[in-house]
Amino acid sequence: MKQILISDELNTGEMIKKIRAEKNITMQDLSEASGVSISAICRYEKGARVPNMGTFDRLMKAMGADVTIVTK
Known about the structure:
By secondary structure, this protein is mainly alpha-helical. The chain has 4 helices and 2 strands; from the N terminus they run βααααβ. The protein has a single domain (3-69), classed as Orthogonal Bundle (434 Repressor (Amino-terminal Domain)).
């Protein structure tokens, strides 16, 4: 599993979209694997909403991403 560092450079929605694109995962596949609705994933990726930590963790696990959040 590739470790991904999140910093202030990318918001959570951008990170979700970037990882999903890198792994060639459709929103439909991510939705089914994580239990998060397609509409919610879409809103997260567009920056209209921010997932809570539990939801973010489910999304990352569903994509096989090991995420470390770096804060200042």
